[in-house]
Amino acid sequence: MSDTEQKPTGVKRVAADAEAASETPLCTNGSLAGTSKRARTASKNHTEDCHDASCKGCAGGEIALDPEVLALPAEKILALAEQEEAEGGDRSVVTKLYEASVEKFAGQSTLASAWALLRCAEFVDYDEYAADAVAVVSKAKDTDKGHGAKALLINGRAQVLRVCLRQENRRSQQEAEDETEAEDLSAKVSGRHALEQGLADISASLKAESSEEDNTGIVENTLAFFAARCQRYSLIHSLRLALLDCALDIALRHVDWSAKEGTGSHVLACKIAIWWTMAMADSTLENETQSRAVEERLGPIVAYLETQASDLPSCKLHAQLLIVLSSVLADEDKVVEAFDAAIRVLQAAHKIAPEDRDIIDQLEDLGAEA
């Protein structure tokens, strides 16, 4: 959607009481469209698919899309959904937009239709839509000329999503929230072959895309997919590490680390690097050679962050990465060096934003003065 086009804003929440529902029979089951096959078991204040820790309640009433929005072509509704999601829009609104795009695409065997199914599946954790996306991609072989890289990407992400949604690959909510509960780091991934194939397809698709055209947008979108999955700490350790390892490889291959100005991809890649290093710290690094390999792999990202010393968010990411890096280094001198460097970065960040409580607290935790 171009900058000159006006984004439809016709979205309203309908009261959930019986009288209002009878007056406005727009949806029948909360934030998802009435044709959804999934049985809903929503809590009192949240929809079933809400995993946002900051959400204060998203099930207070139904969301009704304005007829102006529903009259748009499927592609535009999908673009609206992705835009609203990227901007952190109301979860129920984003879900309705994704569902509306899926309904509009119904019956079409195109990659655009498969992409809508995939994006909706990713947003609401719906396995059936992921499976449908793969089926549509298979049918699209004979009808969609640009089948190659995009088809691989959809197949790969759908496979990975389905592995992540398997109950065997997730700890219970109580286990994930109980910090005193030691996780079994040796737990094996259920569906390992499907996971490996899915990750390989994602990587191959991005390599193919980069040889054909600028793939900056799809790289950022894919890094966002991995970031969203890896923030679910209910995933078992081995699965989370596999996802982070693939995501970090994609970031190192496809993000321009010589850039003078950061992008959304840089931010996502830095967060992924921090999470990957934390996951590696939980693993057993058998010798100094492996520890050095971790340090060398992160080299381009650390070097990039050193050039962003005047950017506050980058300073925070830099400090976090140095702190977690110090926990995996085997050489004691390098541990101290990384730790001291993190303090210097935070002190520089404090000069940029003296009132930033997060920076002050981190410096106090590290036993350093602002």
Description:
This protein has helices spanning 18-23, 67-70, 74-86, 91-105, 111-124, 127-140, 148-165, 173-177, 192-212, 216-230, 237-254, 264-282, 288-297, 299-306, 312-326, 332-352, 357-365; strands spanning 11-15, 61-65. It is mostly helical and 370 residues long. The chain has a two-stranded antiparallel ribbon. The chain is globular and about 60 Å long. The termini are far apart.
Major β-sheet strand ordering:
1-2
Q: In DSSP terms, counting alpha (H) and pi (I) runs of 4 or more, how many helices?
A: 17
C-alpha geometry: globular
**What's the alpha carbon Rg, rounded to whole Å?**
22 Å
Mean pLDDT over the full residue set = 82
Q: Would you identify the regions where 5 or more consecutive residues have pLDDT less than 50?
A: 1-9, 12-44
Number of strands: 2
* Main pleated sheet: 2 strands, antiparallel
Summary of the model, kept short:
The protein has 370 residues and is mostly helical. It has 17 helices and 2 strands. The chain has a two-stranded antiparallel ribbon.
Structural features:
disordered N terminus; mainly alpha; 370 residues; 17 helices; single chain; 2 strands
Architecture blueprint of SSEs:
Layout: E1 11-15, H1 18-23, E2 61-65, H2 67-70, H3 74-86, H4 91-105, H5 111-124, H6 127-140, H7 148-165, H8 173-177, H9 192-212, H10 216-230, H11 237-254, H12 264-282, H13 288-297, H14 299-306, H15 312-326, H16 332-352, H17 357-365
Antiparallel strand pairs: 1-2
Helix pairs in contact: 3-4, 4-5, 5-6, 5-7, 6-7, 7-9, 9-11, 10-11, 10-12, 11-12, 12-15, 15-16, 16-17
